[in-house]
Write a structure and sequence with these properties.
The chain has 8 helices and 7 strands; from the N terminus they run αααβαβαβαβαβαββ. It has a 7-stranded mixed sheet, with helices on both faces. By secondary structure, the chain is α/β, with parallel strands linked by helices. Helix content is about 45%, strand content about 25%. It has helices at about 5-20, 25-35, 45-55, 70-80, 95-105, 120-130, 145-155, 180-195, and strands at about 60-65, 85-90, 110-115, 135-140, 155-165, 200-210, 210-220. It is globular, with a radius of gyration of 17 Å.
């Protein structure tokens, strides 16, 4: 059995025994496939991890940068307490339309606020409007802009807020200084910024599974 096949089989094993089923996630996945959206969404186990983070932190305000078809958004929204909200940002209007349809069909419109547009511009507008701070931020959009998303998201956080950023390992290419792919360069720039940010305590976790070899960073905003 090939290595990736083993990773996928192990993911399937744990998901089948630990995660359970949620018809809303089936709706989101089916709508995304029918619309031909790229399969960049988190895996089932990763979605369950996001759900647990919401529950562990008691987050009631969640910011997501990068909606795609809304799969991770539904994981986040499904774990919110009553009155909680996920604010999610999607630049591609077609992707946003598919996600909005799924949120409506899942009965989650009251928990999800979808913003269409360039994430940097939307974040700037939220900063200018002095939005209430977010308890949890999930960054999963274009990697070239990760460093900018981090700095803007920090202005929308409070001490104790958690920031998770996905797809930072990129099959190990992050450590290859000769790799000039813009997304890889963007991740390295982001990691350098993260490591130099005195307001954050951060770590990185490598992952393998149905999504291949990748990983994410987890940061907590320091108290003042």
């Amino acid at each position: 059995m090939e290595q990736h096949d083993i990773w996928t089989a192990v993911d399937t094993y744990f998901a089948g025994r630990l995660v359970g089923t949620d018809p809303r996630l089936d709706v989101v996945s089916a709508n995304a496939r029918a619309a031909g959206l790229p399969e960049y969404q988190v895996s089932e186990l990763q979605g369950a991890f996001l759900r647990i983070v919401v529950m562990m932190t008691g987050a009631s305000r969640v910011l997501e940068v990068g909606t795609l078809g809304g799969y991770s958004t539904v994981w986040l929204a499904g774990a919110l307490p009553d009155g909680g909200t996920v604010v999610t940002i999607e630049a591609d209007p077609d992707h946003a339309a598919v996600a909005q349809r799924s949120f409506r069909e899942c009965g989650l419109n009251d928990r999800i606020d979808l913003h269409r547009g360039d994430a940097s511009s939307v974040l700037d507008a939220m900063i200018d409007a002095a939005e209430a701070p977010f308890d949890l931020v999930f960054i999963d959009a274009d990697k070239r802009s990760n460093a900018a998303y981090l700095q803007k998201s920090l202005r929308l956080c409070r001490p104790g807020s958690v920031i998770i950023t996905d797809n930072v390992v990129r099959d190990g290419r992050v450590i290859d200084e000769d790799d000039q792919d813009p997304s890889v360069i963007g991740v390295r720039t982001f990691v350098d910024r993260l490591g130099g940010e005195s307001r954050l305590v951060s770590t990185a976790i490598q992952t393998v599974g149905t999504k291949g070899y990748d990983g994410f960073t987890v940061s907590v905003v320091r108290g003042t």
